[in-house]
Amino acid sequence: MVRMEGRTKNAEFLPFDLRFPIILPKEHPLTAKLVQHYHEKFGHGYRETVKNELKQRFYVHGIGGVVQKVAKACVWCRVNRSRPHTPRMAPLPIQRLIPYQRPFSYVGVDYLGPFEVVVGRRKEKRWIVLFTCLVIRAIHLEVACSLTTQACLMAIRRFVCRRGPPLEFISDNGTNFRGASRELEEMVRNISEECANEFTSARVKWSFNPPAAPHMGGVWERLVRSVKEALEVMDDGRKLTDEILLTSMNEAEDMINSRPLTYVSLANDAEMLTPNHFLRGVSPNEPQLTPPPPHSAEALRNAYQRSQQLATQLWNRWIKEYLPTLNQRTKWFNETKQLEVGDLVYVVEGDKRKQWVRGVVEELIGSSDGRIRQAWIRTRSGTYKRATAKLAVLEIRDSNTDPDAVIEPGLRAGEML
User: Fold this and answer.
1) Cβ neighbours of residue 76 under 8 Å, at least 6 residues apart?
2) With helix as H, strand as E and coil as C, how does 106-124 read?
3) Structure letter (DSSP) for residue 414
C-alpha cells in the first residue's frame, strides 16, 4: 500500500489512517468497490457523506467524480429513484391551427363536477359537459344528470342541435366517452345513414388521448378551471336547483366567451378579439344593431358580401394577433432520450411510488415530429397505452465500462467492474 505523507503527521492524537491515508487510483476496480460499499452503507444518500467517510482512511484524487459515477451506476438508485422524462414540447395539432372554419368544427370534450342540486326533499348530483372549440377557444356547456353513456349521448345531441355537427371530437379516455364513441360507431355501422346523421354525422371522427395524460388535453383542462372559478364567483351560498345551476352555467359560458384571446394593449384602440366575435359577430358589450337592408337582390347580395368581409377580417385578426402567441414553447425545451422497444419501465400511476407498476415497452407510437410520446406497455395485468410522460425508464447500465452493457437485476454495479 502507498500512503500519503501529509502535514498532519505530528498530530499523534489523530488516527493513523487519517494522518497517513491510503492512496488509491480513481480508475481502479478496487476504488469503485470501496465507493460502492460506502454508498450502500450510508443508505444510498448524500454524496458528500460518502466523500467525507472515504477521506477518513483513503485519498483518491478527483473523488467527487468517482462517487458521482458509482452513484449513477448503482442498480438500487436507478430502480428506486427513476423519474419520468417528458419529451420536448410537441408542435400544436393541426386541429388548433385551421382558420376560416365554422366555430366548433374541432371540439374537445371534458366533464367537471359533480354539483349537488335539490330536487324536492332529496339531493341529486349533476355534471357539466364542457365542449370547447380548439381553434377560437370558445366553450359550450351542457348539464348531464349522470356519468352514463346515455347521458353523455344526450348532452352531445343537445350540443350538435345548437352548434352544428363537428368534424372531430377529442377527449380523454373516460368510460362515458368511450361508450359514446362505441355507440356512435355502432349506429354508423349497423343502422341506416339517416339515423346516424340524426345523431351527428357519419363523417364525425372521435380521437382519444392516452390515459393519465392530462397535459395532452390542456386546451380544455384550463377552461375547466375557468368554469369552476366563474361558478365560484356566482355562488351566493344558496342551495342549488336545476334551474339555478342551468342559469349560472349559461352566465359562466358567456363570461368565459367574452375573455380576450390576446394580451390587452393600452396603446391599441381596437377592441380585443374574443370568442364571442366569432360566435355572434360582435362583442356582447356592443350590440351594434343595424337596420335591415331593403328587399332587393342587389341589397341582399351586398349584405351577404359585407358579412363575408367581416368574417374574413375576424379571421385575419385571429391569424395576425392570436396565432403568433401559440408559437413559443413555455416548458419542456430540452431533448430527452427516447424509449426503445424492450425497455423496462415503471408506469407512474398514483401519488406513492409503491403503487407504480413495472412493465415492458411492447410498441412505440411516433408523433408527427418524429419523437415518441406514446407507447404500448405490457404489464402483468395486460397491455395498455400510456404517454411517455408517465413512464419512468429503468436504465440499469454500467457507466464505468461499456455504456451499452446492461447490469442484471440483483447484481451490484461494483460486481461488473
Assistant:
1) 40, 44
2) EEEEEEEEEEEEEECCEEE
3) G
Instruction: Name which residue leads in pLDDT, 284 or 49.
Output: 49
Instruction: Please give the full DSSP string across 267-288, using - where no structure is assigned.
Output: T--SPPP-HHHHHHSS-TT---
Band the pLDDT of 167: cuts 50, 70, 90. confident
Give the cell for residue 8. Answer: 498532519
Q: State the pLDDT at residue 414.
A: 33
Residue 206 has phi, psi (to 5 degrees) of -125, 120
Percent of the chain with pLDDT over 90: 5
Question: CA-CA distance, 315 to 277, in Å (whole number)?
Answer: 10
pLDDT at 294: 52
Would you state the cell numbers that stand for residue 154, as one nine-digit string?
A: 344526450
* Number of helices and strands in the chain (H, E): 12, 12
Strand partners, 24: 60
In Å, how far are 85, 134, 177, 255, 352 from 131, measured between CA atoms?
Answer: 31, 9, 13, 15, 33
CB distance 343 to 393 below 8 Å = yes
How far is residue 400's CA from residue 417's CA, in Å, rounded to a whole number?
7
- Residue 95 has, within 13 A of its CA and on its CB side, a CA count of 19
- Chain centroid to CA 83: how far? 16
Looking at per-residue pLDDT, the higher value among 153 and 198 belongs to: 153
Cα separation, 64 vs 50, in Å, equals 10
Q: Is the dihedral of CA 354, 359, 365, 369 positive or negative?
A: positive
Tens digit of each residue's pLDDT (9 = 90 or more) over 65-108: 888 888 888 888 877 877 888 888 888 888 888 888 889 989 99
Q: Which of 87, 85, 86, 89 is nearest to 327 (CA)?
A: 89
What is the rounded CA–CA span in Å between residue 270 and residue 314? 12
Q: DSSP labels for 49-81?
A: HHHHHHTTTEEETTHHHHHHHHHHH-HHHHHHS
DSSP labels for 352-405? SGGG-EEEEEEEEEE-TTS-EEEEEEEETTEEEEEEGGGEEE---B-SSS-TTP
Instruction: State the cell numbers at 350.
Output: 398514483
How is residue 321 annotated by DSSP? I
pLDDT at 330 > cutoff 60: yes
Amino acid at 32: A
Cell digits for 35? 465507493
Query: How far apart, in whole angstroms, are the C-alpha atoms of residue 291 and residue 300?
Result: 13
For residue 407 the three cell numbers come to: 447490469
